[in-house]
Design goal:
The chain starts with 7 loop residues before the first strand and ends in a 10-residue tail after the last helix. Strands 1-4-3-2 form a four-stranded mixed sheet, with no helix packed on it. It has helices at residues 18-27, 65-74, 86-95, and strands at residues 8-12, 37-40, 46-53, 58-62. The chain is built from three helices and four strands; from the N terminus they run βαβββαα.
């Protein structure tokens, strides 16, 4: 998909919908911290974020590396090793089977 033609949304993780949280779990079953990028915001300050693309939007989800790790540690959908639990993965795959292309993950 062409990112240029999609609206780019910059948001904090806490302000995302439950549906986006669930899709993030599927797209990043082993956590977020390895996928963070850095960019300059409108104030010309460096910000780290998780890039995430849906069918109609391109998200930059603001979070620090420590926040990315803590989100996974505190999420009951992930096991003690930081991996998405199989039963959760199965339920989410069924729910979003037509919405997420997991071939690149």
């Amino acid at each position: 998909m062409n990112i240029v033609s999609k609206p780019k949304i910059v948001k904090d993780y806490e302000n995302l919908t439950i549906e986006i949280h669930e899709q993030l779990r599927l797209s990043f079953p082993y956590g977020f911290d390895k996928y963070l990028i850095t960019f300059k915001n409108k104030d010309n300050k460096f910000v780290s974020a998780l890039p995430f693309e849906t069918e109609d939007r391109y998200y930059l989800i603001r979070m620090t590396r420590s926040e990315a790790v803590n989100i996974i540690l505190e999420d009951d959908a992930y096991d003690d090793d930081g991996h998405l639990k199989d039963d959760v993965k199965g339920e989410l795959e069924e729910k979003y089977e037509n919405e997420i292309d997991l071939s690149d993950v």
